[in-house]
Amino acid sequence: MPKYLNLIGILTILAALSYCSGPAEDRQAGEADAPEQLSEETRQKYLKQGKTIASATFAALSGNLQAALQRGGVEEAAPYCQTVAMPLVDSLSEAYNARIRRTSLKVRNPQDEPTAEERRILEAYHRQAEAGKALKPQIHRMENGEIGFFAPIHVMSLCLKCHGKVGEDLSAKDYALIKELYPQDEAIGYAEGDLRGMWSIAFAAQPAE
Q1: Which of 37, 80, 94, 95 is most buried, most CB within 10 Å of its CB?
Q2: 4 vs 158: CA distance, rounded Å
Q3: Secondary structure string (H, E, C) spanning the chain
Q4: C-alpha to C-alpha distance for 74 and 55, rounded to whole angstroms
Q5: Cα(121)–Cα(139) distance, rounded to whole angstroms?
Q6: What is the largest CA-CA distance in the chain?
Q7: CB 125 within 8 A of CB 29
Q8: How many CB atoms lie within 10 A of CB 46?
């Protein structure tokens, strides 16, 4: 089982990296609504930074989560997400001088509820996914002047232990525990490959180009 989880982690990191593509491909979901377009040099700079931060954050979160699952299954992993994940992301945000978030249209933790801008991008990603289009990361200037990096997060097989269908991938007992921790949870019913949400990484406001 540990070898299997480690393999899942490696494959997931590779999948996450594959979302970051060339300059033409990162212009999509919701970006047409951006107040200002950025130069290609600026876009590539923040695309690279966003890719690095998302990969490092994912590696830190997934490594600790896999260890918790190995030690005690969902019973230990669910409390980890509630008590450790947020502080870890906050510390990485400080280290990278960026605001790192994971958000979704179906949140587990209310703190992950999308902003109006994030919701527009998420809804566009979902429309593209339903149309069978490949989802790519994007960079644009946000309404508050910050530079935003956005990239899709897809469901991997390991995610189903906590986000799958109750009675199939997620046991009723484990989901009862999750509901105790997150009474307003909406983040279940996923299948492998589904669009789970997205990375939303904001960099300090920059002068207009």
Answers
A1: 80
A2: 10
A3: CHHHHHHHHHHHHHHHHHCCCCCCCCCCCCHHHCCCCCCHHHHHHHHHHHHHHHHHHHHHHHHHHHHHHHHHHHHHHHHHHHHHHHHHHHHHHHHHCEEEEEECCCCCCHHHCCCHHHHHHHHHHHHHHHCCCCCCCEEEECCCCCEEEEEEEECCHHHHHHHCCECCCECHHHHHHHHHHCCCCCCCCCCCCCEEEEEEEEECCCCCC
A4: 24
A5: 11
A6: 54
A7: yes
A8: 22
Query: pLDDT tens, 137-162?
Result: 999 899 899 999 999 999 988 889 89
C-alpha angle 73-110-145 in degrees, rounded to nearest 5: 120
Look up tokens 């921790």; give the residue: 181
Unique residue bearing structure tokens 């390991």: 158
pTM, to two decimals = 0.80
* Count of all residues that appear for the chain in the document: 209
Domain map (residue ranges) of the chain: 2-203
Write the single-letter amino acid at 27.
R
What confidence tens digit (pLDDT) does each residue in 40-92 have? Answer: 999 999 999 999 999 999 998 888 888 888 888 888 888 777 777 888 899 99
Specify the amino acid at residue 162: C
